[in-house]
């Protein structure tokens, strides 16, 4: 079944980022000890083509990790689903003052 998934890695510590809340189209999940959600953020027989916004609540995670005044509160990743029959994996590489993302597999 086609789905949209994510994982979050804390590149400052070199470890998965556990406890990051991630939202997609009204659904909210939290990353586990492996930095992944326990299930896809969205799964369907066919994903709707078009724009999506995935929001990572980075500030809560960074405060819990000891950063008193995080630079990032929320990180919104906007991406486009063009093929509703494939999986879209959108990881986040997070550090206190930077982040990157890519289309994973």
Which descriptors would you attach to this protein?
mainly beta, Immunoglobulin-like, four-stranded mixed sheet, four-stranded antiparallel sheet, 11 strands, elongated
Radius of gyration: 14 Å
Share in helix: under 10%
CATH superfamily: Transthyretin/hydroxyisourate hydrolase domain
CATH topology: Immunoglobulin-like
Number of domains: 1
- What is the end-to-end distance? 14 Å
Mean pLDDT: 96
Number of helices: 1
- Given the helix and strand composition, which structural class is it? mainly beta
Order the strands across the largest sheet as they lie in space. 3-2-10-11
- Describe the biggest sheet? 4 strands, mixed
- Listing every helix as H and every strand as E from the N terminus to the C terminus, the arrangement reads EEEEEEEHEEEE
CATH class: Mainly Beta
Low-confidence regions: none
CATH architecture: Sandwich
Number of E-state strands = 11
In percent terms, what proportion of residues is strand? 35-45%
Give the CA-based shape. Answer: elongated
Please characterize this protein's 3D structure.
The chain has 105 residues and is mainly beta. The chain has a single domain, classed as Transthyretin/hydroxyisourate hydrolase domain (Immunoglobulin-like). It has one helix spanning 58-64; strands at residues 3-5, 8-10, 15-16, 21-24, 27-30, 42-43, 50-56, 75-81, 88-89, 92-95, 98-101. A hairpin with a 4-residue loop joins β2 and β3 (15-16). It is elongated and about 40 Å long. The model has no long low-confidence stretch (mean pLDDT 96).
């Amino acid at each position: 079944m086609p789905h949209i998934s994510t994982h979050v890695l804390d590149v400052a510590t070199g470890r998965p980022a556990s406890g990051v809340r991630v939202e997609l189209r009204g659904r909210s999940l939290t990353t586990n000890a492996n930095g992944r959600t326990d299930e896809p953020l969205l799964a369907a027989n066919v994903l709707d083509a078009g724009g999506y916004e995935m929001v990572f609540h980075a500030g809560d995670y960074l405060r819990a990790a000891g950063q008193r005044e995080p630079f990032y509160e929320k990180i919104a990743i906007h991406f486009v689903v063009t093929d509703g029959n494939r999986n879209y994996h959108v990881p986040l590489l997070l550090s206190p003052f930077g982040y990157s993302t890519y289309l994973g597999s």
